[in-house]
Structure formats: structure tokens, C-alpha cells
Specification:
GO terms for molecular function: glycosyltransferase activity. The chain is α/β, with parallel strands linked by helices. The chain contains 15 helices and 13 strands. The longest helix has 20 residues.
């Protein structure tokens, strides 16, 4: 068995090539290939959804069966293209009138499809999936993606289902430490598996000039002006307001800032920021451009990428995507950023909530000369390829599934979990 908090026994890929080979996880059995059922609210967009599709692809490539239950969404087509099967159920619903029927459907699905492992990635679906897995006596895995803080006893109880897995996957050591301290999780059941970047997409050499020109023209980016990018939904905790205050301390015309991301239904956050931007004389220099479907090109356009979160990020996918594209990252010094950014080597960590510190970090990044930027880019790309590839994330997850199946197959193993 892996030691507590072990990230898995997979070998880091050579930084000069991309490995996507899951042959080591093939395990034909008497009833055929193992079947894994992942459960999440929806397949719309976001890191949870991306991780679900990535793991499903890895399962199929390893010769396993991959099933996914959600209420559906645009990413269902992508999931099905990688060879997985989607089953639509209202596992997202918090309406108690739906729970019994959904639970019964999950119990039947697990039995009918011969599911070997159930993996829940969100709290509401996890309550149903946990009980359904127990009813069928199959191993149950959770991944804790969200911030672990719970302001009330009720919220804490609601979160607690995510530590009831036979294995509990934390997406960072920051999250793992909080689970141990706040929920009393047995460390033997805990595994840390960081999120991974698809290096076939986030590759600076694969972004064409045409893609960069298309974005530059669409967003009217002025020639010769350094570009500062903050990717993320426009919500208060992501720190858009903090970045506005930091940019107020920089020379006008010395930057062009792109806020890239959906408003997430919180238009009031953007609406509140726009008058503030105007009062500070920054309207010509800061633009909310909405969601982009070409984030590799967005990162390549950037001279510096910012993660200004006011609260700790559980992991922070922005940090590893920016580094995979060879771009300097300036991030607030807490949460998952401490595990992904190498200060002074691939980026800078600055005091959280401090606009002056953030401004200083941005100045430092923009002041790099061509040779300095090249050295940083090479270190950043190598860092991500060695530690945060999609392959590593998927292989470590399949190792957790394999570990549980091996335990279940041992003579004398408990039948009821």
C-alpha cells in the first residue's frame, strides 16, 4: 500500500516528451475489464469536469470501462468521443423529492453494469453515490476539489461525505492538511494527486501566429504594450478588485490587462468594479473579455499571468497552465500556489490581499529582459512536465483504483465497506 499522502509510484515523464501510456494498468479479470463509475453534478465546464474526462480517457486507454453519471452538459460529447459512457441522472439536485429515485437508479446501475469502483467528485452526488456503493459492496473513492473550510456545523456535515471514501484524493497538500486537521481523516486513506495539464494542448510551440493574431484583433490589444492576464471567473474571491488596485500603482500605458473568464452569474462583481476602474483612470487599460475557448493562445499572449485570489486556492490550475506555456506567474502566497510556483524561478509569490506587493511582483515580471524570460520559460515548462502532467494525474488515479481492487481480491478481505 502507498504511504499516506504518497502521490503514487508512477515515474515522471522525460521533460522532452509527452508520455500517455497506461498499458501498465491493464488488468484482465475473470469477469472482464474493471469498470469505474465517476459521479459529478454536470459536464459543463471547469476543472472537475476536465479531470473527469481525462481520467475516463485514461481508463479506456488502459482497457477498462469508464462510466460517468451527471445531469449532462456540453462536455458529454467529448466524454463519449474518448470512449466513455454517459448516463444522465439528476445527481446534482438538492430537492429531497428526487433523492430516492436517483439513489435507486444508481444502485441498479452499479449492479447491472458490474461497477468495480465508484468515484464521486462533488458533495451532493457523493451522498447518493456513497450509499449506493455501500449497498452494492463496492469500493468508494472521493476527490476533494473545493476549499475545505466550513463556516457552520451544517456545512461541515455536508462536506463530511467527501472524507468517507475508502480512498480520499486531495488535489494538493494544502487540501490534504485541512482534511486531516478539520475532519479527522485517517491518513492511511488519504492520497494527494495534483491536477494535471494536457501537455499536447498547453505547448507554446503549438500555438500558431494566426491564433494569436485572431485574439489580438478581437480584443484590440495595442502593439508593443505588455499584456497582463488574470484568468478566472469574475467573483470577489478571485481577486479582480485587488488586481485593479495593484494596477493603479503602475504607470499608465505601461500595461494592457485582460480579465479572461465568465462572470459566473455574478454580474454585480464586474458592475461594481467598472466605476472603480473609471475613477482610477484605468478604463483604457483594463478589459473584461469574457470566456475564451483558446486558453493556450491567451497564455501565450501574456507577458505575465496573475492569480490574485483573496482566499487560498485549493490547487490553482491557472498556475500550472501558465507555466506550461512558459509564462511568468505572479500569485498570492497561500494555498495551492505554494506547491506549484517556484519563487524566483518560475514566478513570484506575493503577500495575499496586498495591492502594493502584487504591483511589485508584476513590475518584477515585466522587467525581465529577453534572456531572463527565456530562462524562466524553460524552467517553468520543465517544472510542469516533470510534476503536473495530465498523464501523472491519471496514472496516479488509476493506481488508487488498482490498489482498492487488489485489496478487495485478497483472501479474507471485508465484503462490506
Amino acid at each position: 500500500m502507498n504511504e499516506p499522502l504518497d502521490q503514487g509510484a508512477t515515474t515522471a515523464p522525460d521533460s522532452n516528451r509527452i508520455i500517455e501510456d497506461y498499458e501498465a494498468f491493464r488488468r484482465p479479470g475473470p469477469k472482464g475489464a474493471p469498470t469505474v463509475l465517476q459521479v459529478l453534478p454536470a459536464l459543463v465546464s471547469g476543472g472537475v469536469e476536465r479531470g473527469t474526462v481525462d481520467v475516463a480517457r485514461a481508463l479506456v486507454e488502459a482497457g477498462w470501462r469508464a462510466l460517468v453519471v451527471s445531469r449532462g452538459g456540453p462536455m458529454v460529447r467529448e466524454l463519449e468521443r474518448v470512449g466513455a459512457t454517459h448516463i444522465a441522472l439528476p445527481v446534482h439536485s438538492k430537492n429531497p423529492l428526487h433523492w430516492r429515485a436517483t439513489f435507486d437508479a444508481l444502485v441498479d446501475l452499479i449492479w447491472r453494469e458490474g461497477v468495480d469502483v465508484v468515484h464521486a467528485r462533488s458533495r451532493m452526488p457523493a451522498w447518493l453515490a456513497w450509499r449506493a456503493a455501500r449497498r452494492n459492496r463496492v469500493p468508494f473513492v472521493t476527490t476533494f476539489h473545493q476549499r475545505p473550510a466550513a463556516a457552520t456545523a451544517l456545512k461541515r456535515y455536508y462536506n463530511s461525505v467527501m472524507v468517507r471514501g475508502d480512498r480520499v484524493i486531495a488535489i494538493s497538500h494544502y487540501v490534504a492538511d485541512r482534511l486531516l486537521a478539520d475532519y479527522g481523516l485517517d491518513p492511511v486513506r488519504l492520497r494527494v494527486i495534483p491536477r494535471g495539464v494536457d501537455l499536447s494542448l498547453f505547448d507554446p510551440d503549438k500555438v500558431t501566429a494566426e491564433r494569436l493574431i485572431r485574439l489580438s484583433e478581437r480584443w484590440r490589444i495595442p502593439d508593443g504594450v505588455p499584456v497582463v492576464v488574470l484568468p478566472g471567473r469574475v467573483t470577489k474571491w478571485k481577486g479582480h478588485g485587488l488586481l485593479v488596485d495593484a494596477l493603479a500603482g503602475l504607470e499608465r500605458g505601461s500595461f494592457h490587462c485582460l480579465m479572461v473568464g465568465e462572470d459566473g452569474g455574478r454580474r454585480s462583481v464586474k458592475a461594481a468594479l467598472e466605476p472603480r476602474i473609471a475613477r482610477l483612470g484605468l478604463t483604457p487599460y483594463i478589459h473584461f473579455v469574457g470566456r475564451s475557448d483558446d486558453m493556450p493562445a491567451v497564455y501565450k499572449l501574456a507577458d505575465v499571468v496573475v492569480s490574485a485570489s483573496l482566499d487560498p486556492e485549493p490547487f490553482g490550475r491557472v498556475m500550472i497552465e501558465a507555466q506550461a506555456m512558459g509564462r511568468p506567474i505572479v500569485a498570492t502566497d497561500h494555498g495551492g500556489a505554494r506547491e506549484t510556483v517556484l519563487p524566483g524561478e518560475t514566478g513570484w509569490l506575493v503577500k495575499p490581499g496586498d495591492p502594493q506587493a502584487l504591483a511589485d511582483g508584476i513590475r518584477t515580471a515585466l522587467a525581465l529582459d529577453a534572456a531572463g524570460r527565456q530562462r524562466l520559460a524553460e524552467r517553468a515548462v520543465a517544472h510542469v512536465r516533470e510534476n503536473f502532467s495530465r498523464y501523472q494525474m491519471c496514472a496516479r488515479t488509476l493506481a488508487v483504483y488498482s490498489e482498492l481492487l487488489d485489496e478487495r481480491a485478497r483472501p479474507g478481505a471485508a465484503a462490506d465497506r
